[in-house]
Amino acid sequence: MDVRVDSWLIRAGAELADGHRDRARRVLVKALNLAERERLRRPLLEAPMAVRRFLREERDLSVRHAWLGVTLPAARAARPLAAPVVVESLTTRETEVLAHLAQLLSTEETARTMYVSINTVKTHVRGLLRKLAATRRNEAVRRARELGLL
Predict the structure, then answer these.
(1) pLDDT digits (tens, 9 = 90+) for 2-23
(2) DSSP 85
(3) Which residue range or ranges hold the HTH luxR-type domain (predicted)?
């Protein structure tokens, strides 16, 4: 079931990219109806940004599918969030490592690119996680984007 929902969401994204909002709406309704049977929220959370934005704009779909609740990023974005604070500024090398994390490079690839050891990269990553109050690399990248560091 999850795969079919994903395929409909991808198709909705393609229709939106082609500028066919009517078709995208019909396809998105199919995806929502399939997802509703098992209350599958994750495919919608991981849907392409254009699809999530479209769902946010189409209020009647959100109302009709209230089972989605407030877990959609669109619903979270509507509430004002407390701005995270960076107490300690990032070093030049940490900023460079952060850019590599955003490009989804592995630790080894980052080390090769920066001409440093793997342990040095790991040290910079630990510093980034601490300074950005994150527990995972992707969370650190997201927080850095929110703060305008990327």
Answers:
(1) 788 888 888 888 888 888 888 9
(2) -
(3) 83-148
Give the angle subtended at the CA of 88 by the CAs of 87 and 93, to the nearest 5°.
145
* 71 contacts 45 by C-beta, under 8 angstroms: yes
DSSP string, 95-125: HHHHHHHHTT--HHHHHHHHTS-HHHHHHHH
User: What would you measure as the largest C-alpha separation in the chain, in angstroms?
Assistant: 54
- The pLDDT confidence band at residue 136, using thresholds 50, 70 and 90, is very high
- Positive/negative CA dihedral, 111, 112, 115, 117: positive
User: How confident is the model at residue 73, as a pLDDT?
Assistant: 45
pTM greater than the 0.90 cutoff: no
d(CA 44, CA 146) in angstroms, rounded, equals: 22
Please, what's the b/e burial string for 10-20 (b: 16 or more CB within 10 A of its CB; e: otherwise)? bbbbbbbeeee
CA angle 98, 104, 106 (to 5 degrees): 90
Among 82, 7, 6, 12, which residue's Cα sits nearest to residue 45? 6
Coil, helix or strand at residue 47? coil
